[in-house]
Amino acid sequence: MLCKKCSQQMPSTARFCPKCGKEVLENVDQITKPVSEPPIQESVHKIPVKTESDIQTDIGKLAAELQKDRATLKNSRSTIAIQIIVLIGSIAWLIVSLIYNVSVFYKILSAVILVSDAWILIKTMTEYMILRSDANELEGVIAKKRKETLSKN
Questions:
Q1: Which helix (H) or strand (E) holds 117?
Q2: pLDDT tens by residue, 2-49
Q3: CA 21 to CA 93: how far, in whole Å?
Q4: If DSSP codes are grouped into helix, strand and coil, which group holds residue 95?
Q5: Geometric angle at alpha carbon 31, from 27 and 33, rounded to 5°
Q6: Distance (Å, rounded) from C-alpha 151 to C-alpha 65?
Q7: What is the pTM of this model?
Q8: Residue 60: which of 153, 74, 68 has the closest Cα?
Q9: What is the pLDDT of residues 44-81, one digit of tens each?
Q10: Residue 83 near residue 117, CB atoms below 8 Å
């Protein structure tokens, strides 16, 4: 095929002349005509399906976390017991300082220590209750996952 402007030889599929750049009008229909377009696929949101090994891995991770929480709970119970003993000692010291003729400084110091010990005990017991709640929740999730695994088999 020849360009009408400069008479340059060009391929039959060219849309523009390679020499002068003039647009070739007779090929416009051929080029702009859509070649068979692939069918448009609808976007479908697929929910990922977990395999049995995925569920077993999840159960293993949850069980490890639960084991760690149980160890922390055991340590927390020991810490709470020690703090209760310290609190009882602080109460006893405050009573002794009130009964006997001890200076005001020691009475105030005893009261401050007693309040501090009580605060630490309350804080530790709150953390213990939160951790225990988390452990109970993990136990429930593990039981549910195991039930799902058994129901699939």
A1: helix 104-152
A2: 888 888 887 777 777 878 877 776 644 444 555 565 555 555 556 666
A3: 102
A4: helix
A5: 115
A6: 24
A7: 0.51
A8: 68
A9: 556 666 676 777 787 888 888 888 888 888 888 888 88
A10: yes
